[in-house]
Write a structure and sequence with these properties.
Elements (H helix, E strand, L loop, with lengths): L4 E6 L3 H12 L4 E7 L2 H11 L3 E5 L7 H7 L7 E6 L3 H9 L4 E3 L4 H16 L6 H13 L8 E6 L2 E6 L5 E5 L2 E6 L2 E6 L2 H7 L5 E5 L2 E4 L3 E6 L5 E5 L4 E4 L6 H9 L1
Parallel strand pairs: 1-2, 1-3, 3-4, 4-5
Antiparallel strand pairs: 6-7, 8-9, 8-12, 9-10, 11-12, 13-14, 14-15
Length: 258
């Protein structure tokens, strides 16, 4: 039996993992057992370390947070705090099913409130209906209830307008903003590349490296590159590298059929 609450941190972004670990260090009853930067590693770590509590990023390359829970669904699940950014479906779903979540960016006060709820659950006898609630959430996700953004609100000078996402060619990170390129126009939108990526339909938009998202319909050509990477040639002639880290099973299907 552990004397402390064993915690697993799962997020593909190192700064996000560091932030959660830093907040946990001020909690004397919490012990970080392991960290994982991806879904496959998370499944293995949960089975090996059997944590009491998992902070689980929703959107990750290869295997997302929902798929991690799906892979463990027939097993005893730990208490899960889902971590997400600008994902309105996820927030609604978590609230409906009474599951804990952290919306990025979160502060230490919000983090502590989530920890208090987790502690109350962990000291109660029995698991209640946690498995059932998580099961209903997964069923909702698999039934296709996720709604991706169809347009983005753009503030440009003294006017604001809705930009249909199909008009977007590519998106680049720009510190605390993202720069959206649509034809010959470019617009700044406050937010992160990770947060915006989660709002876009993955069948239409690819995150090809740490700082760029590409509309599939804007790709003219793919060229195999070194170490399993690809060079993307856009229809406007721009070249972008597709990092191996951001290649997953769905993108492999796209490459095969391109």
């Amino acid at each position: 039996m552990r004397s402390k609450i064993g915690v697993l941190i799962v997020d593909d972004e190192r700064p996000a993992r560091r932030k959660i670990r830093r907040f946990l260090e001020s909690e004397p009853d919490m012990e970080v057992l392991c960290e994982s930067d991806g879904g496959h590693g998370a499944v293995a770590a949960i089975r090996e370390h059997k944590p009491d509590l998992v902070f689980l990023d929703v959107q990750m390359p290869e295997l997302d947070g929902f798929a991690v829970i799906g892979a463990l669904r027939m097993e005893r699940l730990p208490q899960v705090v889902f971590v997400t950014a600008h994902d309105q479906f996820a927030l609604r779903a978590f609230e409906v099913h009474a599951l804990d979540y952290l919306l990025k960016p979160f502060d230490q006060e919000r983090f502590r409130r989530v920890l208090e709820r987790a502690r109350r659950y962990l000291v109660r006898e029995g698991r209640g209906d946690l498995d059932e609630r998580i099961g209903r959430l997964l069923d909702e996700v698999r039934a296709g209830s996720v709604r991706y953004a169809e347009r983005l609100l753009i503030n440009s000078g003294e006017r604001a307008f809705f930009l249909p996402v199909e008009h977007i060619d590519r998106i680049e990170a720009a510190k605390n903003y993202v720069q959206i390129h649509a034809g010959e126009s470019a617009y700044l939108l406050r937010g992160t590349i990770e947060g915006l990526h989660r709002r876009l339909d993955p069948s239409k938009f690819l995150r090809v490296n740490r700082s760029q998202i590409v509309n599939i319909d804007s790709i003219r050509e793919l060229q195999p590159w070194f170490h399993g990477e690809y060079r993307i040639i856009l229809k406007d002639g721009r070249e972008i590298m597709w990092s191996r880290r951001y290649l997953d099973r769905s993108s492999e299907v796209f490459i095969r059929d391109f």
